[in-house]
Amino acid sequence: MTAPSAQETAATVDAPAELTDGYHLVVDALKMNDVDTIYGVVGIPITDLARLAQAQGIRYIGFRHESNAGHAAAAAGYLTKRPGVALTVSAPGFLNGLVALANATTNCFPMVQISGSSERHLVDLKQGDYEEMDQLAAAQPFVKAAYRVSRVEDIGRGIARALRTAISGRPGGVYLDIPAAVLGSIMDKEEGDKTLSRLVDPSPRQLPAPEAVDRAIEILEGAQRPLVVLGKGAAYAQADERIREFIESTGIPYVPMSMAKGLLPDNHPQSAATARSLALKKADVVMLIGARLNWLLNHGEAPQWNPDAKFIQVDIEPKELDSNQPIAAPLVGDIESVLEALSERTKPGRITAPTAWREELAARSKQNVAKMAERLKADPHPMQFMGALKAVRDVIHEHPETYLVNEGANALDIARNVIDMHVPRHRLDSGTWGVMGIGMGYAIAAAVESGEPVVAVEGDSAFGFSGMELETICRYKLPIVTVIMNNGGVYRGDDINPLESDDDPSPTTLMLQARHDLMIEAFGGKGYRATTPAEVTAALTEALASGGPALIDCAIDPSAGTESGHIAHLNPKGITVGNITPAKK
Ligand code: ADP
Ligand code: TPW
Ligand code: MG
Fold it and tell me: Measuring from each residue's beta carbon to the nearest atom of ligand 1, which residues come in under 6 Å?
């Protein structure tokens, strides 16, 4: 080894220590944990954080409203099985994003919302700082966990903790508060680097106990009319091959929840989706895989369900079990591991769905499919939901890689039935809350994360919640075609204000003549107006071929659709419902 020259020694001794700051440590910690995209809206104190992230190679997608950025992060989490990250400014930006974080938690999607916040000492004494709010306390009730980083040297720990919490066990939304002062704090770079860590096995496998597996096997073996319900947890788990193998080797019919459509192709011979009512009413053993017995499944109650049905539930969250019905065989673990254990411990050929049951469901399916085909054949004018959606379905069939985003009431319920899915995790919709406003955020995430085309089928009301993101779609030149079911209203467009003296539209009325296609043209996208299914077909075919942003405004009969779509029964029944009389003069 040669001795260092005098010049080298001087340089080492005199060099000032290299420094880092909160901004750099946040970006470094995210990169170290493979976060490659951030969805957000900038402002004080996070503008430079977004700039730095971009400069360091993290893709930053800038939105027009934090709810939409948050919904995008949530969808990214669901699609990739890695936490989606949203970035928001203090107080109002944080609160706008919180809706999406809460929705992600409700849907069990892994997401982290990182928000800048105001000066702690001013917030805590309520001295009236710029965008002052105790964000940690505000987030707490709505999220899986909420953390705050109070010292720059805790940034690495805070990010590691937030990412692991979001992704492990039942996934959910995590809030991470980083006050402005922490972002701006400076520390020695070498010391700072030591505070960062890469998560080891962030979402560990969770194996079910062998006796729990044997209990479930025994029940399945004795079943006369077994049924599997696949939920979006099953889609999220990315255990596609295991699920297919279990279903096909046992012959058990299955019903997919809306976002589990495509996990097995909707035209699979064992799909009982088209005989759903009969399947639920008669099944004697029901195996829930990544699906909760919540309102979307009538809480497992009669008359929709067989009151004597035994439930087996595969879920990673033990607290979920018995939440609605007694669970005869809980299988707590991750879906991949549970199905692996089931296949290992089942004696070959012992679990089989009786042929009579399969034939009964198949016969009912055949009848229902024939009825649906009749309805789809009709082509009345003005255009109905069915006509427009059949056209959308047929074009998507030509492009099976297309992602489908779907929200609205009738626009959601009818599209869910008409548009069949053939690929796992390609359908994103209003989910567990039935929330409006996910449309453009989910569509943007699907396009950004996959690079594939996206079709967003939107009720005209639903679209309005996130419509300004058309600009975002055009700015990033994303291959998203928004298809609006424009029936001029929330549910229907023909409601009237019964007060003759009053010109105000009814509460459910929107502008039937609205030209949503012109909105996208303002941002350089391609707009189409379609009044017949043939026009929908032509427009969607051209739009998908172009690979660029487009919007098709479909003129739907304003008298088409029903109040609240398929969930009208959830409206409270006062004496007035459907029988409102105007006040007398
Ligand atoms: P759906 O609305 O489609 O019926 P839900 O959102 O109600 O589906 O249910 C999803 C369930 O899946 C949740 O209870 C969640 O805990 C569970 N889950 C999510 N990921 C996994 C996984 N990897 N393994 C097991 N269960 C999971
Ligand atoms: C955040 C309540 C449920 S469905 C819907 C609203 C406002 C819109 C239905 O009209 P749309 O569909 O989209 O035009 P269609 O085809 O039936 O005409 N705010 C939030 N979430 C919900 N669910 C609502 C309000 C609602
Ligand atoms: Mg509508």
Answer: 107-108, 170, 231-233, 236-237, 257, 259-260, 290-292, 294, 296, 315-317, 320, 334-335, 432
